[in-house]
Amino acid sequence: MKDSQLKQAPAGMKNRPFYQKLGFAINGLSYAIRHEANMRRHVLIGSVTILVFAVVQVAYIWWALISICIGLIIASELINSALEALIDHIHPEYHSNIGHVKDMLAAMVLILSISALSVGGLALLDTL
Hints:
This protein is mainly α and 128 residues long. Helix content is 79%, strand content 0%.
């Protein structure tokens, strides 16, 4: 990255109005959806899950549990993608320790996805 591409953070970022901070968060989510295939997959699967739960009419407790699961998966994929991009920018060449860090980040998303699958399956078993 060239010096001309580096942007200086405006002074007082912590004191920005809520709507501006919300805009930054929406921009980050939008960027991840547009540029990360795994994020698009998670959003699609989460959307399909919500649709299936609505059709099957699962109990409110299952809605709460699957909402938490979907939120955690989306959040963990954001963390995974952000850290991988940062790592690749700071240290573009391969290093085994960096590979282990990326593997652990991927494992975080995998474990949450398996948990969500379990919650979804149990909800359907309970309802059908």
